[in-house]
Design brief:
By secondary structure, this protein is an alpha+beta fold. Helices cover about 25% and strands about 45% of the residues. The chain is built from two helices and ten strands, in the order ααββββββββββ. The strands form two sheets. The chain has a five-stranded antiparallel β-sheet, with no helix packed on it. Strands 4, 5, 7, 9 and 10 form a five-stranded antiparallel β-sheet that branches. The longest helix has about 30 residues. The relative contact order is 0.19. About 10% of the residues have low confidence.
Amino acid sequence: MKEKIGQASLEMLFNYGWMTLAVLIVVGVLYSLGVFSTLENVFQKQEQTIGTATFKIDARIEAGGKANFNLVNKGGGTVTVNYVKVNNAFLSSPSPEPPFPIAEGASFQMQGGTSLSGSVGQSFRSVPVEIGFATAYSETHVDSGVISGTYAPNTE
């Protein structure tokens, strides 16, 4: 009789244990997807950092489509940026106008219009960013990556 009670209690623990584990996994996946984000968390995700072979790029996309970039040259020497594309289109009215040099290890601010737009807090995913540049030896290269995040409030 005692063996059957013990067996029943173990079976109950196993059943509830697996169910608890499954619930924890589902909650973890939902949390990582941002389902439980508050408005505070949304605003913290507006700047996205990506790394390419030559650049570290901090990107901020505003609701009106304006892109703000901080480019850090982590390559082996001064490079000259010839163009920046966002979502497979050149930046409109870039400031400063390319081409411009960035010394090794230096940080550079750039902004321009994109074809993107959305509401403040709305998310965008896997937007391609491409930077065309030349090295000191006039070799041309292209670095690319993707950014994801949420649209920031317009600054102007």
